[in-house]
Amino acid sequence: MLKTRFENYPKGKQFSAILGDLLGRGIFNVDGEPWMFQRKMASLELGKISIRSYAFEVVNSEIKTRLVPLMLSLSDGKGDNNLLDLQDVFRRFSFDSICRFSFGLDPKCLELSLPMSEFAVSFDRASNISAERAMTSSPWIWKVKRILKLGSERQLKRRHHDDQCPGPRAGRDTVASALTSLFWLLSRHPEVELAILAEVDRVVGANQELTSFEQMQELHYLEATVYENMRLYPPIQFDSKFCLDDDFLSDGTFVKRGTRVTYHPYAMGRMEEIWGPDCLKFKPERWLRDGVFFQENPFKYPVFQAGLRVCLGKEMALVKLKTVALSLLRRFHIKLAVPDDQGLQFSPGLTATLRGGLPVLIQERKDQKPIVLVHTDNTQL
Ligand code: HEM
Asked: Which of 114, 112, 117 is nearest to 69 (CA)?
C-alpha cells in the first residue's frame, strides 16, 4: 500500500470529506497533482537551512524562557499546587512554538496562569470531531448531522490556517504526544534515564552545554530511546487510505476497490513477527549496533509513514524531541504522580492523547547540569 502500489492507495474522497472541514485542502488532505504540488512547496520550505535554524531558535527560546522557568516555579514545593500535567504543558509548549514558527504569532499558551488560547481550544475540538467522524459506522451519520447542523457537527467551524501551512496539526500534537509517552516510559525505566544522562555527559562534558547539531548526532542512545518510545507509542497510531482499483496485497489478500485499508504502527510495534519475542519490552538497545544507532526499514516502522508520502517534518521533530528531553532531564527529576502499574489509556483523537493527562511532580536536580542550548549558526541538519 505504501510501497509498490502507492498510486492505488490515495487518501481518497472519504478521508477528504472526514477531514475537509478541519484541514481544508492542505497537504494532509489531498491526492494526485494538488498533493504533489503542495509536497514540493512544503519540502522546499521545510528543507531550507534558514527555516530549520529559525525553528530551533524558536524551540530553544521557548525552552529557556518559558518551559524551564515554569518547571522551576513548580519544583521543590514552590507554589500552592505542585502537581503538573506534563501532557498539557507539552501541548502548550508545542502549540506556542509551532505558532511562533508558522505564523509569527505568540499565543503564550505556556503561561499556565492563562487559559489555552481560543485558537488552540477550537483546534482541539475540531480535531476530536473529525476523529469522531472517522469512527462513525456509516459516513451518512455525520453527513446528515452536518446538513441538519446537529451536535458536534454544528461546532466544527471551517478552518483556513492549514491551507497555507502544514504547521499546527503536523508538528504540535505529534511532538507533544511523543514527549508525553517518553516521559511516562522514562519514569518507569530509571536505568534508561541514567544511560541518557551518562551519554550526554560523556559526549558533551559533565558541566557543559550542548552546542552543536554534530554533538546532538553523537547521542546514539538518546536517538535510540526516542525511536523506541515511538515504536511502542506512535503519535499517529494508525492511518487509512482507500483502494482505487481491485488489488492483491503481498500476502495474497484480495482488496476490493473502495475498501478502506489501514496501516497501524501501534499494532505493528507490538508484533512478534516484526520485533521478536521481546516486542513489548521498552529496550532502546534494539536500535544500537556496537553502540551506534541503526535506522530500521521505515516500512517496518511506519511511525512517520514511509515511501513517497513520508513525513516531511521527521528530522525537525526528532531534534525537537531530543532537545526538550535533554533540557528537562538534565535539570529536573520528574516523578509520576499516579500509580505506575497501569498501562496508558488514550482518548479518541487524530493523535495519541492520554486520558487524564500525565500528572507529575517536579524536583530540581541537586547535581544540576546546564540546560541544552543549541546555537543555531551551527545548523547542520
Ligand atoms: C513525532 C512527530 C511526528 C510524527 C510521528 C509524524 C508522523 C507523520 C505521519 C504518520 C504522516 C503521514 C500522515 C498522513 O498521510 O495522514 C506525516 C505527514 C506529514 N508530516 Fe509529520 N509527523 C511528526 C512531526 C511533524 C512535524 C514537526 C512537521 C512539520 C514541521 C511534520 C510535517 C508533515 C507533513 C508536511 C506531512 C504531509 C506529507 C505528505 O502528505 O506528503 N510532521 N507525519
From this structure: 112
